[in-house]
Amino acid sequence: MFDIPMPRRFAIAALTCTFLCLAQKDPGVRGGPPGAGGPIPGLTPNELALFNEGIRRTTQLEAVCDTCSDMPLGGDTGENPNLATLTNSSGLGARFNGDQCSVCHQQPAIGGSGGFLVPNPQDPPARYRKPENPMFDLIPHRKGAQNYVPSFLTRYGPIREVRFQRNQDGTPDGGVHALFTIVGRSDIGAPGCTNAVLPPTDFETQYRKGNLSFRIPLQTFGLGLIEAIQDSTILSSSAATASARAALGIGGIPNRSGNDGTISRFGWKAQNKSIAIFAGEAYNVEMGVTNDVFPTARDETSACTQGVNEPNDITRTDPTDIRNQAFNNPLHMVADWLEFAIFIRELAPPQPVAFSPSALRGQQLFGTDPAHPGIGCFLCHTPTMVTGPRHETEALQSVPANLYSDLLVHHMGSGLADNITQGVAAGDMFRTTPLWGIGQRMFFLHDGRTNDLLVAIRAHASGGDPQGDSLAHGNSYPPSEANAVIQKFNALAAADKQAILDFLRSL
Ligand code: HEC
Ligand code: HEC
Question: 193 and which of 116, 213, 238, 304 could share a cystine (Cβ 3.0–4.6 Å)?
Answer without folding.
Answer: 304
